[in-house]
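Subgroup meeting minutes
Present: P.N., E.W., G.H.
Scribe: E.W.

1. P.N. recapped why we're keeping a running log of single-chain structure predictions: easier to compare across weeks, and new members can see raw inputs and outputs side by side.
2. G.H. added today's entry (74 aa).
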Amino acid sequence: MPRFFFHVRSTAGVEMDRQGLDFETIEEAIADARRAGAEMLLDDAVEEARTRSKSTFEISDSSGKVLARVPFNG
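Output recorded in log:
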């Protein structure tokens, strides 16, 4: 099963995901990123949510190649 890494790019820079998660397909990884981004926006305080709303997940494969970019807000 392929492993995907969910790096978070924000105005503060990039938070690297060193662990990753296993999904059958990139589509499943993208769907999970959409859910996680929405949850993170709901969980954050209002001011931090404004900053987070400009954040994206950069989903990469084990070689480091970016396969998809998913904004937190959709």
